[in-house]
Design a protein that fits this description.
With 695 residues, the chain is mainly beta. Among the domains are: 274 residues, 6 Propeller (Neuraminidase), CATH 2.120.10; 207 residues, Methylamine Dehydrogenase, Chain H. It is built from five helices and 53 strands. The strands form twelve sheets. A six-stranded mixed beta sheet has the order 2-4-49-48-47-46, with no helix packed on it. Strands 1-5-28-27-26 form a five-stranded antiparallel beta sheet, with no helix packed on it. A five-stranded mixed beta sheet has the order 3-45-44-43-42, with no helix packed on it. Strand 52 and strand 53 form a beta hairpin. It is elongated. The chain starts with 32 loop residues before the first helix and ends in a 6-residue tail after the last helix. InterPro entries: Beta-propeller_rpt_TECPR. It comes from Clastoptera arizonana. This is Tectonin beta-propeller repeat-containing protein.
């Protein structure tokens, strides 16, 4: 079967050979040649990864795809230093400034994704903002390299990378720029001590030590230090390495004696990776567990014994390193990066760090490096590496240690909107329609009998000192008597809905501190002014007021959410679009209209005292940052690690969620690498987001 002949869209005239007619819809590519080349390389890598050909793709640059002296940011690199034909002069210390050009392409990785394409609609405004989703973590910078970095090594003064062709480049660490120099020798991998007095290179398992170091990494005489080396880490006067799954140590090393006899260090499990820093040694085992060496001192550099490090069972380490501020780092097999500040404790905490979605698309190709003040990560899919020398931020979700119910109990709904710090009540509805109460600092559950026999509870809506529940039939019940002496309350009362019951059936309700918002089955929104706690004791039916304004065309409102701060009212339509109510003032709580907030589509929202938390269609968690009374829309969405089925935020931004039916709580950790003290956020989102930068 022959393919039909296609007529070309470009008409070429024989009489006028220069006359070309470009068909409609074809536009010139105005990107720079470097950008086009980079895009082509990225696409090639994705194809290679799809067919499991990453190794072949990475080795292709034996045939140089780009010149040695040019990188994809247009930065030229100094020519290769040949110390044999160019003897080093007395002013060799000035050499890096004499040759090479400063690389000013160290940029924050705070890339922003924008998403908005909604039709105009009467009574609807849309908030168009270029900075809709802020994905990457603060503090991380993307550093351009002269070629793809297959391995990296970092000392306090130098960074060194090796390329696919065993080429070696190094740079002197400075404030905001690097000068890359190409060395005359080749290596699969290079390792340095913190001062760079010790320099080892690995060539297919053979470790050689640089014995004629002229300056930093420059030299040409190498001597055999060890064989069959799988991993090595150099301290100031020691070399720890792995050979055949066993651990060995060379000690008493210095610049004039960079290697010596090896001492075997007994280890109960086969080891694949090793990292040392100061008086600490970590090993990664064949079983993906991690151990640290106890008893290391100046007089006993080999230490005394090994102890296991407690890590979550979900973490299967692929690479490890010791980092600044006495941190330990793990890069696992599932594209996740973790750090711990208390890894030697029996109950160590591990915090997940996000840098870039693209960085870790193929984690098996990544490698960690560090020195006393920064952490570095290769990205072997491009000519960039990532570094952080300022602020480290990590997140974690922890399973709540619940007692008072069967361990097999699974949760369907939770509400924490009535919690402020350690005060208030956390309410949980099980998948078997049983209601429980607990205090946020105890997790001791107490069963509470529901008042709606035969009716399914569809919404739990909490406020300080009360709980409202909405049933499938549109009935509302309020928990009374909630206080310090009886935090689970004393009795139920059905809310009188005579004012609207003949015309309206509510499908969603939300309680603020002095207002209640609701959405009915037709998509209309209502509001009533009054304390949810006091309304529970009122004799008369509350006065529900219809709220003006409709969502965008072909949609209806489905849910509405209010904060303890009256000016924060948000909503969802039946197509999961997010809206915020504008024009709310203390003397006009009804507001004036709805504004579409783009960037995220959500299944549910939870509005705390200062932020909006959204659960996206795939279970991802986002937080809207920058909300205030003068900025009711906020600035951008920040994605938080985790995949949940529901979530709820307290007034003070403590977050709970349900993951695989289990109750989990959110917390975060911040470490300032430039200060002597560390700071911990303990779930306070305001502290966590300080320092985010938009570029």
């Amino acid at each position: 079967m022959s393919l039909p002949q296609m007529k070309p869209d470009i008409n070429i005239s024989d009489k006028e050979p220069t006359s070309l007619v470009i068909p409609p819809g074809i536009y010139p590519d105005l990107r720079s040649p470097d950008t086009i080349l980079k895009d082509l390389q990225d696409k090639e890598f994705r194809v290679a990864r799809e067919y499991h050909l990453e190794d072949i793709w990475l080795n292709i640059n034996e045939e140089k795809l780009i010149p040695d002296n040019y990188n994809d940011e247009g930065t030229f690199v100094a020519p290769e230093l040949d110390i044999k034909s160019n003897p080093v002069s007395n002013d060799y210390k000035l050499l890096p400034e004499k040759v090479g050009v400063k690389d000013t392409s160290i940029v924050p990785t705070t890339d922003v994704i924008s998403c908005h394409s909604y039709p105009e609609h009467p009574l609807i405004q849309e908030y168009f903002q270029q900075d809709d989703i802020l994905e990457e973590n603060v503090g991380w910078n993307k550093v351009a390299c002269p070629e793809i970095a297959l391995t990296l090594a970092v000392s306090n003064d130098y960074i060194c990378i090796t390329g696919p062709g065993m080429s070696v480049h190094y740079g002197i660490l400075g404030e905001n720029s690097l000068v890359w120099q190409k060395l005359s020798y080749k290596a699969n991998e290079l390792k340095m001590s913190p001062s760079a007095d010790l320099v080892w290179k690995l060539d297919f398992g053979v470790a050689s030590a640089l014995t004629d170091e002229i300056m930093g990494l420059i030299g040409c005489k190498w001597e055999l230090a060890a064989r069959c080396v799988e991993s090595v880490s150099l301290g100031q006067s020691v070399a720890w390495y792995v050979s055949g799954g066993k651990v060995y140590l060379q000690k008493g090393l210095n610049k004039t004696k960079p290697f010596t006899d090896s001492i075997p260090i007994s280890c109960p499990i086969q080891v694949t990776k090793i990292s040392c820093m100061e008086m600490m040694v970590l090993v990664l085992t064949l079983e993906h567990s991690i151990m640290w060496r106890c008893g290391i001192t100046d007089k006993c550099e080999e230490g005394t014994h090994w102890r296991s490090i407690n890590i979550p069972s979900s973490i299967q380490g692929e690479d490890i390193t010791l980092g600044p501020k006495n941190t330990a780092w793990i890069l696992d097999k599932s594209n996740r990066l973790y750090f711990s500040h208390n890894y030697t404790h029996d109950y160590s905490e591990w915090w997940q760090v996000k840098i870039s979605n693209y960085t870790f698309e193929n984690t098996s190709l990544c490698q960690l490096g560090s020195n006393s003040f920064s952490i570095w990560i290769t990205n072997k899919a491009s000519q960039f590496i990532f570094m952080n020398s300022s602020i480290i931020k990590g997140d974690r979700w922890s399973f709540a240690p619940i007692t008072g119910t069967n361990k097999s109990t699974r949760w369907r709904q939770i509400t924490a909107e009535g919690v402020f710090e350690d005060n208030g009540s956390l309410w949980l509805l099980s998948t078997t329609a049983e209601l429980y109460h607990t205090m946020p600092d105890s997790y001791v559950l107490k069963s509470v009998v529901l008042p709606c026999h035969g009716e399914d509870v569809v919404i739990l809506a909490a406020a300080p000192h009360t709980l409202w529940i909405l049933t499938q039939l549109g009935h509302i019940y309020i928990r009374q008597g909630v206080g310090k002496t009886s935090p689970d309350g004393t009795k139920w009362r059905q809310l009188n809905l005579e004012q609207i019951s003949t015309e309206v059936t509510f499908r969603h309700i939300s309680c603020g501190s002095d207002v209640i918002w609701a959405c009915d089955t037709k998509g209309d929104v209502y509001m009533v002014v009054g304390s949810p706690y006091e309304i529970a004791t009122d004799i008369f039916s509350p006065a529900w007021v219809a709220v003006e304004g409709k969502p965008q065309s072909d949609t209806v409102f489905d849910k509405v959410f209010v904060s303890s701060e009256t000016h924060m009212v948000w909503a969802l339509d039946n197509k999961n679009n997010i809206y915020v109510r504008e024009g709310i003032f203390p003397d006009f709580q009804l507001g004036t209209g709805w504004v579409v907030v783009s960037g995220v589509q959500a299944l549910t929202l939870s509005v705390s005292g200062s932020a909006v938390w959204a659960l996206s269609l795939d279970g991802s968690v986002f937080c809207r940052h920058g909300i205030s009374q003068n900025n009711y829309i906020g600035n951008y969405w920040v994605q938080i690690f985790g995949s949940l089925s529901t979530l709820s935020a307290s007034v003070s931004d403590d977050i709970w969620g349900v993951c695989d039916g289990a109750l989990v709580s959110y917390s975060n950790k911040t470490i300032n690498l430039k200060e002597t003290l560390t700071g911990e956020s303990d779930g306070n989102y305001k502290k966590m987001i300080d320092g985010w930068e938009i570029v």
